[in-house]
């Protein structure tokens, strides 16, 4: 008899009854596993007779229980862990200032030699009792940094060394430990080493909370500090303290939040957020939606609904056509592969001189596709393009979509929550007629990364595409057909309870605070535009939302990249370039809630100084785009 697979034996039910009746017997030997076939007696260890052949070892079970109870923390343990974790958070947040010497980031590998160029000879390495510094790009001791002391700091003619995590400088380079930052004539390099880039390993036995937090806190020196006021690249993510508390509460209570039968209140919290956002855009109460892991998943859920409604037969996928503008986010086309529509046709519609989808060209594309027996099924409009911040003409696109029986999806991931601002409401005219919307609370509502939201105007269509058919193990669960469970409105199951990270900040601060923060960013973008517009040698594009493009006209792209390097080299600001309609621009997005006028003033002075250093020919004009 194989006693290692106890549950498969024919005596299972009989043995279970014996356990319940506490039928104890004494046996001679201790057992390395819970089950045995030994029958020798005279031991003081209590065993349960499972059957005529199997004995259950209670001592072994007790040892397992004692170990498992380690997971059951006490209030004192939780308080200690939270206090120490908060101390690390506070130390990191103190660095999110233009005045802090570490800047917005230690350059990630992908930006080496591009956005944050380190020139040879610019940086000095200084050793002291508590720090190793490397010029504007400093490596310092503290919660996240290498410390001197037992690990001595030694200086020589050409180098400074702090063992075991060494910082070295030579004629052409600065190195910081196993994870090295090197400066040379043309590049910044970030090396790799087990002490800096590899997290604390997963081990058989645990370590102290101090060691765990010390290891985790290194992340603060190996990341783009998205919440830094000088982080003006991409679309920076932000997070507030109430949002972090919301995540803590969600993980601690840990409800299954996708089904009313499991936790009605958790479902209601999510539905309240969805309906509130729907009202912001003018959607009817019959709309439905869900919180997702981000804008791409929100878009995928919407596109799935569009596919099922407009292209119900898979044999038509290869002739189906998706229409985007040349500035539509790349995540939209990516969704086609996940949806099983890799063979679908994608048309990229050019933008006009205001960087909006050209509706006349869109119409021509559709007419030509219809003539060629293709199936136009989906067009995506954007309210806040990532490159420029431009807004597509939604009413005109809606008219074309209606004419050709197409689904209209609006990508409002970046720009969507500017609808809160009275000065921007007109930009969202027509969005209320869209069939679906994707918007990111982890952008405009300053929630942590991993917070998207999808809305479908006709909620029944969304439900039809995602309704879950429960397995037999859930057959006793009480259900009500009138309940709109989140698990029936997305492909996700067992998802994180995302509502608190959105809801708690809104409840604590009120909508007005977020409206003012977003309006401030709109005003700061206008302020930057007007200040740069008066600067010689600078061509600047008037912003629609909070993104500003500028460049030096009449020079090579390499000269504009040199301007970028001059602006970003000391680490106080992080901006990037983008290419729009074949023209390279420096791109600034003002979105971080910590960014205020004094920070923008510092940035403007940086641009002015950088232009002066480039010794461009004198001009008497400013070219504003």
Key terms:
seven-stranded mixed β-sheet; 16 helices; disordered C terminus; 625 residues
Summarize the structure.
This protein has 16 helices and 23 strands. With 625 residues, it is of the alpha+beta class. It has a 7-stranded mixed sheet, sandwiched between helices.
Note down, in words, how this protein is organized.
The chain is of the alpha+beta class and 625 residues long. Helices cover 32% and strands 15% of the residues. The protein has helices at residues 12-20, 58-68, 75-93, 209-216, 241-253, 264-280, 295-310, 330-338, 359-371, 394-403, 441-444, 459-466, 499-509, 511-533, 557-568, 597-613; strands at residues 24-26, 35-36, 46-49, 55-57, 125-127, 132-134, 153-155, 160-162, 167-169, 174-176, 181-183, 188-190, 288-292, 320-325, 345-349, 375-382, 407-411, 436-439, 452-456, 539-541, 547-551, 576-580, 583-589. A 7-stranded mixed beta sheet has the order 13-19-18-17-16-14-15, sandwiched between helices. It is globular and about 95 Å long.
Distance between the termini: 84 Å
Major sheet, described briefly? 7 strands, mixed
Radius of gyration: 30 Å
- Please, how many helices? 16
Shape: globular
The percent range for strand residues is 15-25%
The side-by-side strand order for the widest beta sheet comes to 13-19-18-17-16-14-15
Mean pLDDT: 81
Assign the structural class, choosing from mainly alpha, mainly beta, alpha/beta, alpha+beta, or little secondary structure: alpha+beta
Protein name: HDC protein
GO molecular function, one term: carboxy-lyase activity
Family: Belongs to the group II decarboxylase family.
InterPro entries: Aromatic_deC, PyrdxlP-dep_de-COase, PyrdxlP-dep_Trfase, PyrdxlP-dep_Trfase_major, PyrdxlP-dep_Trfase_small
């Amino acid at each position: 008899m194989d006693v290692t697979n106890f549950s498969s034996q024919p005596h299972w039910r009989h043995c279970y009854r014996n356990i319940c009746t506490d039928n104890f017997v004494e046996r001679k030997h201790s057992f390395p596993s819970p089950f045995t076939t030994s029958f020798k007696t005279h031991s003081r260890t209590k065993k349960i007779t499972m059957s005529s052949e199997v004995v259950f070892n209670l001592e072994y079970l007790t040892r397992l229980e004692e170990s498992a109870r380690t997971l059951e923390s006490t209030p004192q343990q939780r308080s200690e862990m939270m206090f120490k974790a908060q101390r690390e958070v506070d130390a990191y947040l103190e660095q999110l200032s233009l005045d802090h010497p570490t800047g917005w980031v230690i350059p990630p590998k992908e930006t080496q030699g591009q956005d944050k160029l380190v020139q040879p000879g610019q940086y000095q390495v200084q050793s002291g009792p508590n720090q190793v510094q490397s010029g504007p790009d400093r490596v310092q001791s503290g919660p996240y940094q290498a410390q001197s002391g037992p690990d001595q700091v030694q200086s020589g003619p050409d180098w400074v060394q702090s063992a075991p995590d060494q910082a070295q400088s030579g004629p052409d380079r600065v190195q910081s430990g196993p994870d090295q930052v090197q400066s040379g004539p043309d590049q910044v390099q970030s090396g790799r080493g087990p002490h800096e880039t590899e997290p604390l390993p997963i081990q058989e036995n645990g370590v102290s909370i101090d060691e765990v937090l010390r290891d985790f806190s290194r992340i603060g020196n190996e990341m783009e500090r998205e919440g830094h006021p000088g982080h003006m690249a991409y679309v920076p993510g932000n997070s507030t303290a109430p949002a972090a508390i919301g995540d803590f509460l969600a993980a601690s209570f840990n409800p299954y939040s996708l089904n009313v039968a499991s936790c009605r209140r958790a479902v209601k919290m999510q539905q309240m957020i969805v309906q509130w956002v729907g009202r912001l855009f003018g959607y009817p109460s019959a709309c439905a939606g869900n919180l997702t892991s981000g804008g791409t998943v929100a878009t995928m859920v919407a596109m799935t609904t569009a596919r099922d409604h407009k292209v119900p037969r898979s044999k038509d996928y290869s002739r189906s056509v998706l229409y985007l503008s040349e500035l539509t986010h790349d995540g939209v086309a990516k969704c086609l592969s996940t949806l099983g529509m890799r063979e679908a046709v994608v048309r990229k519609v050019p933008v006009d001189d205001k960087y909006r989808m050209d509706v006349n060209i869109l119409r021509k594309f559709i007419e030509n596709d219809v003539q060629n027996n293709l199936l136009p099924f989906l067009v995506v409009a954007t309210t806040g393009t990532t490159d420029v911040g431009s807004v597509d003409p939604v009413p005109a696109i809606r008219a074309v979509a209606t004419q050709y029986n197409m689904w209209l999806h609006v990508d409002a991931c970046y720009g969507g929550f500017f609808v809160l601002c009275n000065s921007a409401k007109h930009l969202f005219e027509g969005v209320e007629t869209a069939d679906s919307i994707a918007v990111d609370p982890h952008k405009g509502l300053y929630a942590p990364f991993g917070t998207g939201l999808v809305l479908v105007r006709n909620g029944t269509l969304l439900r039809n595409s995602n309704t879950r058919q429960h397995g037999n193990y859930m057959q006793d669960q009480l259900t009500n057909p009138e309940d709109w469970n989140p698990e029936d409105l997305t492909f996700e199951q067992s998802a994180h309870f995302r509502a608190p990270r959105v809801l708690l900040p809104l409840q604590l601060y009120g909508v007005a605070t977020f409206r003012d923060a977003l309006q401030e960013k709109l005003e700061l973008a206008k302020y930057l535009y007007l200040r740069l517009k008066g600067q010689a040698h600078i061509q600047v594009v008037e912003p629609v939302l909070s993104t500003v493009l500028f460049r030096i006209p009449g020079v090579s792209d390499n000269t504009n990249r040199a301007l970028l390097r001059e602006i970003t080299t000391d680490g106080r600001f992080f901006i990037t370039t983008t290419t729009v309609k074949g023209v390279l621009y420096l791109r600034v997005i003002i979105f971080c809630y910590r960014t205020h006028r004094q920070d923008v003033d510092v940035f403007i002075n940086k641009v002015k100084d950088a232009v002066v250093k480039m010794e461009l020919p004198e001009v008497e004009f400013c070219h504003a785009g």
